Fold this protein.
Amino acid sequence: MDETQELGKRAQKLDVLNARFTKSVLDSFSWEEYEKCCGPFADRYKHQLEASYIQILGFLKENLWKEFDKIKEEANLVERLNKLEDIIRQAKEDPSNAPLNTVPQPDQTFRSLRVKLKFEALAKLREEETKLRAENEELMKEIANKSENFEKKKANVDIALREYQEAANVTESIPMEALEQVIDQIL
């Protein structure tokens, strides 16, 4: 953090919040819990454990603040919060420039409501379009299958018709007396 940079009201509140957090972390690290963790060493080395507990608390406090200051510096929080302070102060001094203090006009409100309704209707239409496209694809597949079946049946009918015509031509070319002799021989 730049030492010449003055802490604004919000930056000071940020430090207060970190102080509360650090205090709650340190308070949650109680001697009783630490003593339980040490188990059988707690009675035997009580003075050494008390000294190490105090060192750990000091280390935690110092490092929590260092990490907090590092985050503040990396994110440039103090400068950003100070800029926010300036924007708020300027808005209070000159309300005409403050976009937060503008009251929407009735026509703006109606327009925004209409836009919302139009977006909702558009979403419904898109959903319906998706359903119709899927249904259309199914119908097109069905039509393609039926057309294929029709072409197969048409080809079969054409083949049968040609065979019939060939048989009819053959029977027409054979004289009637020869046909009667063939029929008599078969019977």
